[in-house]
Amino acid sequence: MLLVGSIASLGPIIGSPLYCVSKHGVLGLFRTLRASTVVTGVRVNMICPYFIDTPLIPVFGRAILAGGATGKPEDVVDAATRLMADTRIAGRALCVGPKVKTSVNNEFQLVPQTDKSGKEVAIWEAYADDFELNEVFNRRMVGLLNQVEAARGWIGWAGDMIGAFTYPLRIWMGR
């Protein structure tokens, strides 16, 4: 399953509270479904595009973005294709924005566009560490809940067996 969020899923866009609320909702849905992957076996990922150069950006929006960069539709397609095609990828969110040059050693360290050793990127992973810790917690919690249910099953069975064998005694005593 691929959910389409937005950069607005991760932070506010001034003047667009309804859009931000809906995209925060997509993030909440993603995190909830991602946490239940252990139980359901359904792979869930999300893309979070920035302002992408499409006809969806109105004139007013283009005026506000003037002088700044926008993302490209092909980068969104690349990110979505990667998340859907590689079955090893589960529970990941990718942000897609304008291409920037980053250090070869650190994708979060910007370098000047003229830097020959830098690499151009338009796709970053969002909240990766949070997802990994959350996944460990959820696996352990689901395992614990399964153990509790198994114990309850055996305790219930033992109680029912005692009840079955003591039934004649309870009838004889009038209870």
Protein topology:
Layout: E1 2-4, H1 17-35, H2 37-40, E2 45-49, H3 59-65, H4 73-85, E3 93-102, E4 119-125, H5 128-173
Parallel strand pairs: 1-2, 2-3
Antiparallel strand pairs: 3-4
Q: What is shown here, in short?
A:
This protein is of the alpha/beta class and 175 residues long.
Characterise the protein shown here.
This protein has 175 residues and is of the alpha/beta class. The longest helix is centred in the C-terminal third of the chain and has 46 residues, at 128-173. The chain folds into 2 domains: 2-126, NAD(P)-binding Rossmann-like Domain (Rossmann fold, 3-Layer(aba) Sandwich); 128-175. The protein contains 5 helices and 4 strands. The protein has a 4-stranded mixed beta sheet with strand order 1-2-3-4, sandwiched between helices. The model has no long low-confidence stretch (mean pLDDT 83). It is elongated.
Low-confidence stretches: none
Treating each run of at least 4 consecutive H or I residues as one helix, how many helices?
5
Q: What structural category arises from helix and sheet content?
A: alpha/beta
CATH architecture of the largest domain: 3-Layer(aba) Sandwich
Overall structural domain count: 2
Q: Would you give the CATH topology of the largest domain?
A: Rossmann fold
> Percent helix among the residues?
40-55%
Q: Which strand order does the major sheet show?
A: 1-2-3-4
Mean pLDDT: 83
Give the CATH level 1 class of the largest domain.
Alpha Beta
Following the backbone from N to C, one meets helices and strands in this order, namely EHHEHHEEH
CATH superfamily of the largest domain: NAD(P)-binding Rossmann-like Domain
Distance between the termini: 56 Å
Identify the overall geometry: elongated
- Largest beta sheet, briefly? 4 strands, mixed
Radius of gyration: 26 Å
Count of beta strands: 4
Strand composition percent: 5-15%
